[in-house]
Each structure stands twice: as structure tokens, then as C-alpha cells.
Write the C-alpha cells for this entry.
Amino acid sequence: MLSGFQNASRIPELRRRLLFTLGMLAVYRLGVHVPTPGIDRQAMAAFFDQQKNTLFGFLNLFSGGALEQFSVFSLGIMPYISASIILQLLTVVFPYLERLSKEGEIGRRKITQYTRYGTVVLSIIQGIMISVGLEGTQISGGHSLVLTPGWGFRLMTVITLTSGTAFIMWLGEQITERGIGNGISLIIFAGIVARLPSAVTTTLQFMREGELGPLVALLILALSVLVVGAIIFVERGQRRIPVQYAKRVVGRKMYGGMTSHLPLKINTANVIPPIFASSILIFPATLAQFANHPWVQTASGALAPGTWLHDLVYIILIIFFAFFYTAVVFNPSDVAENMKKAGGYIPGIRPGQKTAEYIERVLSRITLSGAIYLCIVSLLPTILVRQFNVPFYFGGTALLIVVGVALDTVAQMETHLITRNYEGFMKRGRLRGRRG
């Protein structure tokens, strides 16, 4: 592993890409601390101490703490992610988008353009909702979060937050094109990792005050290592279906006759199911902040983190979205049809519809395994907080993102090393990245 990083510094192009990526991430972290005009920052900090289990706390995690400070990057990259997911779902509904997705580079650019438009629209909508919500929110003591309420504040907030999200989107695209790749994922990665030192500091403070014992801290550390290892093992896991290609004669040459495989990831949906499930579950808690209706308060209390109903609904939603998103991004019928056109077949399975049914059956089994794995990792924070009073958000969605992005980044660097005849990071085999 260390020799791999030493080889990376010897390639001028890879070194430039790494430095460019670090520079863009530094710009992003600098923008997190640039405040939006018209906000009482001390009142905002006090407000967010009470918002850990609401939509604001969830968005604050993905913005790297920018929403807590209400900086120009408060919305983070979530509008872009939401727009991308919406476009992927609409691809199944609208034939025009489905045709674009199959037109190669030209279609991809067109879909990217639509995603940008959708990001701006979602940013404007979220900016209006947040500005209006902040104007009507007061902390204990009757202090308002907004210094000068009114349409002037709302317009300034919408323009500032939308511009900040558009700039983050541009940073991510620049990292993807001129950096090491996976720009959007690396921005989320940087935001989550940036909060790790404060979490460690809080843990040490709890140990000094006696609220967290040394043995419990060692147990948490050992469990962290085990969970990270389990995530790496599962994220790299594949079910390889053997594929045999028939021999074909073209002119005077014979092609085919080789054996390959169709790789099916155990966790095809990646981290999308926990993100969707968390967003839905924290919506009642967020709504309860602005609505005092009895049934809203009752629903918020029943679905509060730590209750059995919350955990049950969370598991059901993760399993549902795991199967739903896998069905959106992977079509067994298309795979079987393309395999048939290329002269390939699965040994013992008839080409065409039978092959599609076989692939779908195998995919359903491994998707269930991946969904169970996501449920275990995602519920780990609740167990730690409930049993050991862990003072920070350990595991779950954040840990899945951090480990997954780290695997992707190392795989990208290894590709650059191997194409230039350098030894990669792993001497006994290449590191397989996740499916983006």
C-alpha cells in the first residue's frame, strides 16, 4: 500500500490530478465558513443543538457543517444528488430519457444538462422553504434567527444558497474531469470526514468526565475496525455468473469461443436506500418543529429514533429502496438481449427470456443479502447510542459513504498506476471499485 502511494508521486499527471483535487476540496472547505448575510450565527448554533434528529441535522451532516453555520454552501450537494436520482427514476417512465441514456456520450451530456437545471430548481425551492422557516423560528428566550426578516432576506438567501450549490456542483465536475474522479462523492466525503476531529474531541471529553468508560471506548474502536472491514468486504463482493460466447467466423477470421462472466454486485444500490429511508423518517420530526397539530406531534414521537417502530419502519424502507433502486439501474431483460446479440449464453440456460429470468432470480437473492447488510450497518448507531451512550454519529450512512468513496478513489489511482506499468496498491490483485 505504501509503495503504491510512493509510485503515485512519481507520475506527473497523477500528481497534478491529486494536487488539483486537494485544492478544489480546500476551496470547498473554505466556502463552508463564509456566512450568509442576515443570520444571527449564535442563535443558529443554539438552534442546531436541538436539530440532530430532524431534516436539518441530516442535511447538516452531508453539508459538512455548512448548514449549522448557515454559510453560502448550506444546501451542500444534496440538490444535485436529488436531481440525479429523479432523472434516473424518470428514465424508466419517459421513453425520451431512456433513449438519451443509450446514446452514449451525447446522451450523457444531455442528461447532465437536465440534471443541472433540476439542481437549480430544487435549490431555489429549498432556499425559499428554509428562509421562510427560519423567519418563523425562535429559540428559547424569544430570540429570532433572522436579523432583518422580509422579502429582502428571502431573496438574498435564495440567491446565495442557489449560487453556492451551483458552485459546489461546478467544483465536483472539475474534480471529475481534471482531478482524480468521483468529484461529487469526494465533496460529500470531505464534508463528513471534516467533522471527525470534533467527534473524537467530544469522545475524549466524555471519557475525562466519566460518562464513557475506557473499556467501552476500546470496544467502540474495535467495533469500528470490524465494521469498516465488513463494509470493504461486502462492497467488493460480486456474484459472477459464467458466460460462454459461441465461435463466429467473420471473413477469414474466427471470433468468440471464449468464457467470461457477468458480475452482479451484492450491494447494487450502494448508499441510496439508507439516504432515502432516513429522509422519509426524519420528515415527521422536521414537520413537528413548525406544526403543533396533535397528530403531527404523535407521529413524530412514535417515529423518534430509538423506538421500536422507528427501527422497524427503517428496515422496511431500506429493503424496499434496495430492490426499487436496483430494478431502476439494472434491467435483466436488456442484459439478456445484449448477451444474445453478442452470441453469449449462460451454460445450461436458454438465451433470451430464460436468461433474463435466471439473472433476475439471482439478482433478487443477492439484493436481499445486500439490503440486510445495509440494515445492520445503518442501525448500528442507534444501538451504540442506546446501549453505550456514544456521543457521535458512528457508522450508518456516513460510514458507508466514507468507506465506499475511499475504495473508489484508491481504485481510480490504481488504474492510473497500472496503465503506466507501475505496481498498484494491492500486490495480489486489483482493487475493484464500486459501481457509481
Summary: The chain has a mean pLDDT of 79. Strands lie at 238-245, 248-250, 253-255, 259-265, 344-345. DSSP finds 19 helices and five strands in the chain. The first helix runs from residue 2 to 8.
